[in-house]
């Protein structure tokens, strides 16, 4: 990308010639970087708005089934609010609508490349960026009409091997039984692609495809999986390359702070602030766990007290939570040791086998990363509990029946229980937890949007005026203006219309607030 | 045969003998060198040793077989773990710029541990095992081995007894070693059916259509279910056990069955009723009700430690390492005789060390010394003879066969490649 101020005529001509090639289709693989000059303010706006979009993608992915009707509807709404291309409008062929389809595609293109710069620096950032971009791409591709899908494959020269009719016939039954959406008719009429299983991991993971001798047999309608895999590979390679050339970009003092802020914005508040440290004494944990812990850590605490042991996943989730509410390393060691030695582990074994990992959590061992407490998203999405585990999100990882009993035993009214279970059924786990918060704290409408167990704790302490409330000042200031998870309506951005000056001013204001939390 | 009882206290005395005369170094090196095809494959491999008192040495690496041999004979590790092949020599990991030292490849591994079945076995708990619950491992191996072979097309799968309460699988195909973290976790998830922790009662949920992989797995479970679960574990015997099973069926069925079971006491008949009910449901309700199958899977289906399989850099206990608690050697399992495999028959370090001291059996007497042979070769040969005199022999032989098979397919692959090139 060129950020120089020299307006180059030759380059401009090139831009025009490339426009059709770049923006002829409403979806692209982002294989060509933009080469035009853009103003700094446009740079900022594009970046922030794509970031908003990706945050929405992330949040929707947690509170809804991906590709469900509601998910699609909400994502489309956000795309259209932020003036990114969506299919419906492309079909309308309203050449004079403002901003034009061309503008939207250009914005899609350029903003993607700006975020590549901001999100190429660490493994974590890359992973997050790739994941959201892929979810976004999947949505947009699925949304295309068949003819556009074909055109997309053609434009990007994507060819995949199909299997012969004979092969299809011999596998018919297995193909039908491998996917919910495949019937005898589809087998007969549709093409099936045969690719190495490594190229369709999402289908393999969910057992949604027939697998034989290391190859998967993918019906045409699932071709998006292979394309996404292609997209992922390209994007991750491109990010690695971008990372290498980043120092050159960062030497531009106008861009460096912007890019840094952008990349810090994705996780929101991480609740690792050290201000609260030492405010909690160990004997307060029991009462606090009943009053101010969210269900997940309350469950972990109880399991620890009962069995005097927690497996790795539980130790991590609970240990980091405790660190986040202000336990010092010494306190943490004392806390875990005193509990473990009541069980099968003696003090000596504890010091050898467990103390290391606790010091590790506090960044005192190994690569000395100061680990941050897990967010709801992380608890819900990664490392689900298995046999013997007590970690995870109780709203996500419990049988509804057990959850019901548990809520009843915690004296949640039966009306409240059914409200919570309803939310769980709709997969709104964070909202369910927030409801639980409201019911147990006797507040009608909590003023925050829950996305972190430590946030739950702080909010609870704020209401109850306990020792954990000390951090509230920071949190308030650092509260995150980016769209919060779940049902909160997509951020209100100016409706499609004339974008220029006034809106740009509004945007940079937005940007300012954006930076405060970084 | 001497029934040498293993005593943990004797381990420090036995280990030197084991590493000096019995540990199959040449096969071990042959394995991890993979024909020397990739440069520095052995040299960049991480080994990790556990010493007395759980002292842990990570990032050990060796340039040659003899270097590994010397080091192991010097420090006599209580336990050996194998890690990934890194971008640089692991023992120099501190000297390279952080971030550039990366795990590149490793066998695709699986770890199945009996403790993960605690909620469905009544015979033992935690680290204990008995011939009754060992059937669970047999089922696990059958199901996973079939899927790894037929579904994923992996040819070189080494199954190893962990030495105590579980089994490991090392998938050694080149494609398997090169799998990314995402691919490993996808494979592990494809193979996982039992989901959920202490807060989940129903851990298996089947939906229409039943995937061919699940069908195949069910045929394995069906073979063992009646003798293992109904008779062995008696899951429909006591009131408590029966209630647990009935906790997994829909409420209306549960009520009916509770009444019926007051008169039906025989576990197999009880199970027959559950199956019939499921079948009836299947015809009346449109959406599949597979609660009988779900119960079978929840009680018998392999429970993987997914995190072990996922990470490229995850360490796993090495074959032929000793289990310090039981003294048993981590030996390969012969799948052709899987049903006969008995973990309590696996030799302990004390047994094989004792066997070394027995007088030579006829037919095994010293071969005439070849005077031209240099001393090193003679030593090497003596060592080969050494393990052949012990109960370890058949397991090393099994390992040899596994390596031979790999060498053969490597050769085939090379031939194929060169033929391919000639075509042009």
Automatic annotation (TrEMBL), chain A:
Keywords: 4Fe-4S, DNA replication, DNA-binding, Iron, Iron-sulfur, Metal-binding, Primosome. It comes from the Eukaryota. [4Fe-4S] cluster binds at residues 296, 376, 393, 433. Residues 481-501 are annotated as: Disordered. GO terms for biological process: DNA replication initiation; DNA replication, synthesis of primer. Pfam families: DNA_primase_lrg, DNA_primase_lrg_N. Its cofactor is [4Fe-4S] cluster. InterPro entries: DNA_primase_C (IPR058560), DNA_primase_lsu_euk (IPR016558), DNA_primase_lsu_euk/arc (IPR007238). Residues 287-457 form the DNA primase large subunit C-terminal domain. GO terms for cellular component: alpha DNA polymerase:primase complex. Gene3D superfamilies: 1.20.930.80. GO terms for molecular function: 4 iron, 4 sulfur cluster binding; DNA binding; metal ion binding. Binds 1 [4Fe-4S] cluster. Regulatory subunit of the DNA primase complex and component of the DNA polymerase alpha complex (also known as the alpha DNA polymerase-primase complex) which play an essential role in the initiation of DNA synthesis. The primase subunit of the polymerase alpha complex initiates DNA synthesis by oligomerising short RNA primers on both leading and lagging strands. Heterodimer of a catalytic subunit PRIM1 and a regulatory subunit PRIM2, also known as the DNA primase complex. Interacts via (C-terminus) with PRIM1. Component of the alpha DNA polymerase complex (also known as the alpha DNA polymerase-primase complex) consisting of four subunits: the catalytic subunit POLA1, the regulatory subunit POLA2, and the primase complex subunits PRIM1 and PRIM2 respectively. Within the complex, POLA1 directly interacts with PRIM2. PANTHER family: DNA PRIMASE LARGE SUBUNIT. This is DNA primase large subunit. It comes from Umbra pygmaea. The lineage of its organism: Eukaryota, Metazoa, Chordata, Craniata, Vertebrata.
TrEMBL record, chain B:
Keywords: DNA replication, DNA-directed RNA polymerase, Metal-binding, Nucleotidyltransferase, Primosome, Transcription, Transferase, Zinc. GO terms for biological process: DNA replication initiation; DNA replication, synthesis of primer. Pfam families: DNA_primase_S (PF01896). GO terms for molecular function: DNA-directed RNA polymerase activity; metal ion binding. It comes from the Eukaryota. Residues 371-383 have a biased composition (Basic and acidic residues). The keyword tRNA processing does not apply. Its cofactor is Mn(2+); Mg(2+). Its EC number is 2.7.7.-. InterPro entries: DNA_primase_S, DNA_primase_ssu_euk/arc. CDD domains: AE_Prim_S (cd04860). GO terms for cellular component: alpha DNA polymerase:primase complex. It catalyses: ssDNA + n NTP = ssDNA/pppN(pN)n-1 hybrid + (n-1) diphosphate. Residues 363-383 are annotated as: Disordered. Belongs to the eukaryotic-type primase small subunit family. This is DNA primase. It comes from Umbra pygmaea.
């Amino acid at each position: 990308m060129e950020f120089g101020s020299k307006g180059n005529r030759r380059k401009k001509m090139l831009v025009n010639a490339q426009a059709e090639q770049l923006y002829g289709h409403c979806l692209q693989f982002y294989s060509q970087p933009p080469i035009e000059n853009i103003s700094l303010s446009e740079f900022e706006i594009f970046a922030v708005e794509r970031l908003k979009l990706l945050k929405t993608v992330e949040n929707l992915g947690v509170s809804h089934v991906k590709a469900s009707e509601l998910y699609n509807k909400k994502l489309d709404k956000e795309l259209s609010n932020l003036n990114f291309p969506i299919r419906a409008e492309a079909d309308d062929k309203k050449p004079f609508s403002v901003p034009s389809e061309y503008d939207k595609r250009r914005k899609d293109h350029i903003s993607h490349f700006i975020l590549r710069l901001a999100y190429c620096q660490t493994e974590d950032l890359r992973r997050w960026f790739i994941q959201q971009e892929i979810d976004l791409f999947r949505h947009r591709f699925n949304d295309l009409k068949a003819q556009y899908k074909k055109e997309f494959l053609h434009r990007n020269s994507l060819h995949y091997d199909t299997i012969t009719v004979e092969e299809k016939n011999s596998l018919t039954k297995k193909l039908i039984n491998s996917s919910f959406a495949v019937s005898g008719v589809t087998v007969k009429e549709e093409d099936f692609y045969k690719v190495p299983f490594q190229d369709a991991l999402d289908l393999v993971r969910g057992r949604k495809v027939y697998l034989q001798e290391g190859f998967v047999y993918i019906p045409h309608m699932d071709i998006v999986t292979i394309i996404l895999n292609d997209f992922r590979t390209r994007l991750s390679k491109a990010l690695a390359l971008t990372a290498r050339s980043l120092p050159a970009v960062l030497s531009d003092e106008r861009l460096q702070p912007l890019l840094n802020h952008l990349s810090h914005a994705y996780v929101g508040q991480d609740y690792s602030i050290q201000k609260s440290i030492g405010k909690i004494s160990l004997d307060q944990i029991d009462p606090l766990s009943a009053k101010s812990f969210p269900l997940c850590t309350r469950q972990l605490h109880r399991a620890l007290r009962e069995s005097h042991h927690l497996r790795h996943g539980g130790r991590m989730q609970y240990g980091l939570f405790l660190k986040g509410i202000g336990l010092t390393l010494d306190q943490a060691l004392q806390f875990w040791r005193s509990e473990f030695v009541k069980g099968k582990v003696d003090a000596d074994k504890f010091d050898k086998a467990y103390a290391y990992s606790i010091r590790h959590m506090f960044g005192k061992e190994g690569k000395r990363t100061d680990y941050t407490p897990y967010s709801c998203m992380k608890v819900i999405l990664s490392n689900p509990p298995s046999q013997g585990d007590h970690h995870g999100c109780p709203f996500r990882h419990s049988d509804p029946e057990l959850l019901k009993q548990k809520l009843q035993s915690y004296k949640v009214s039966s009306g409240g229980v059914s409200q919570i279970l309803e939310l769980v059924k709709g997969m709104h786990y964070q909202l369910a937890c927030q409801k639980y918060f409201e019911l147990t704290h006797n507040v009608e409408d909590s003023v925050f949007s829950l996305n972190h167990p430590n946030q739950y704790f702080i909010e609870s302490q704020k209401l109850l005026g306990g020792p954990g409330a000390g951090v509230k000042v920071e949190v308030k200031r650092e509260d995150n203006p980016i769209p919060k998870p779940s049902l909160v309506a997509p951020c209100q951005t100016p409706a499609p219309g004339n974008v220029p000056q006034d809106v740009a001013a509004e945007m940079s204001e937005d940007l300012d607030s954006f930076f405060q939390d970084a | 045969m001497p029934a040498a009882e293993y005593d943990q206290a004797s381990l420090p005395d036995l280990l030197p003998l084991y590493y000096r005369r019995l540990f199959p170094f040449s096969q071990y090196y042959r394995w991890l060198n993979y024909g020397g095809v990739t440069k520095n494959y052995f040299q960049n491999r991480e080994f990790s040793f556990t010493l007395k008192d759980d002292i842990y040495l990570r990032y050990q690496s060796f340039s040659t077989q003899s270097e590994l041999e010397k080091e192991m004979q010097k420090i006599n590790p209580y336990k050996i773990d194998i890690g990934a092949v890194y971008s640089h020599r692991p023992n120099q990991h501190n000297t390279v710029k952080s971030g550039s030292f990366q795990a590149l490849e490793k066998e695709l591994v699986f770890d199945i541990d009996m403790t993960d079945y605690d909620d469905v076995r009544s015979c033992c708990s935690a680290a204990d095992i008995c011939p009754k619950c060992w059937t669970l491992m047999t089922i696990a191996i059958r199901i996973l081995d079939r899927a790894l072979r037929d579904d994923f097309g992996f040819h070189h799968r080494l199954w190893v007894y962990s030495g105590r309460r579980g089994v490991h699988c090392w998938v050694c195909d080149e494609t398997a070693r090169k799998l990314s973290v995402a691919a490993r976790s996808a494979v592990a998830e494809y193979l996982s059916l039992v989901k959920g922790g202490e807060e989940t009662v129903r851990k298996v949920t089947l939906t229409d259509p039943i995937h061919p992989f699940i069908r195949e797995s069910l045929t394995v479970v069906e073979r063992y279910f009646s003798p293992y679960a109904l008779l062995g574990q008696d899951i429909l015997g006591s009131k408590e056990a029966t209630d647990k099973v009935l906790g997994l069926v829909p409420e209306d069925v549960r009520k009916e069955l509770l009444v019926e079971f007051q008169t039906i006491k025989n576990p197999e008949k009880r199970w027959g009723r559950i199956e019939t009910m499921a079948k009836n449901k299947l015809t009346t309700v449109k959406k599949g009700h597979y609660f009988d199958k779900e119960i079978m899977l929840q009680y018998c289906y392999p429970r993987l430690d997914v995190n072990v399989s996922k990470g490229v850099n995850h360490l796993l206990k090495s074959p032929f390492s000793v289990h310090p608690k039981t003294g048993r050697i981590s030996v390969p399992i012969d799948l052709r005789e899987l049903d006969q495999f008995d973990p309590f028959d696996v030799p302990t370090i004390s047994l094989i060390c004792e066997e070394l001291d027995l007088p030579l059996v006829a037919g095994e007497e010293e071969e005439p010394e070849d005077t031209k042979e240099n001393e090193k070769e003679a030593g090497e040969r003596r060592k080969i003879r050494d393990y052949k005199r012990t109960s370890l022999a058949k397991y090393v032989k099994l390992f040899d066969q596994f390596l031979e098979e790999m060498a053969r397919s490597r050769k085939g692959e090379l031939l194929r490649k060169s033929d391919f090139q000639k075509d042009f």
